[in-house]
Design brief:
Oligomer: single chain
Helix content: 55-70%
Strand content: under 5%
Radius of gyration: 24 Å
Distance between the termini: 22 Å
Shape: elongated
Number of helices: 10
């Protein structure tokens, strides 16, 4: 039993040390991957929705060809910022700005995004809705910028492994009740 407790503690310690870094790696892969697709016409399934949204948000001032290049550049810049770890405040600010634009089709084009049977989300809507996860990841990374960190209470207490070893209750019933109430 003590071996499995140690394994659990080691796993939790590894997760506490590495999870934010792994979150940054996955987030940057998403931004660079989707950003690169937008540089090549016809490769990004979201390009049409992105240019349509940009056109509405900018009142048609930015042409579709330019807007998709701006979005691609923005997404790749966010990804590069997450890779280097430099200018993280600016990177996360850009991520927030990009997410506002990415989520806005839910409000601008609800009829187009929820055109499935019984107003089920279309594939485009599902593409937009998944951005909620990216927002959450950005918030977690942002929380760690100023010294915030993941702390496992269980790992902290388990530095002394005896706290995980089952206690033997004394034979005295009154003492047994005191031990249970702790």
């Amino acid at each position: 039993m003590l071996c499995s407790v140690r394994a659990k503690v080691q796993l939790m310690q590894w997760l506490v040390r590495r999870s934010i870094m792994l979150l940054r790696v996955s987030l940057r892969a998403v931004f660079i991957g989707f950003g690169l697709l937008k540089f090549f016409p016809g490769l990004s399934p979201a390009a049409g929705l992105a240019t349509q949204t940009t056109s509405v948000l900018t009142l048609g001032l930015i042409p579709a060809g330019v807007s998709i290049l701006l979005i691609a550049t923005l997404e790749c810049t966010i990804g590069l910022g997450l890779i280097t770890g430099k200018f993280m405040r600016l990177t996360l600010l850009l991520l927030g700005f990009q997410m506002l634009g990415a989520m806005s089709p839910l409000f601008l084009f609800p009829g187009q995004l929820f055109a499935g049977p019984f107003h089920a989300p279309t594939l485009e809507a599902q593409y937009v809705i998944k951005d909620v996860v990216l927002i959450g990841a950005g918030l977690v990374i942002g929380a760690t910028l100023h010294g915030g960190r993941i702390v496992s209470e269980r790992v902290r207490r388990a530095e002394n492994y005896k706290s995980y070893v089952p206690r033997r209750y004394p034979e005295n019933p009154q003492s047994r009740e005191k031990m249970r109430s702790r």
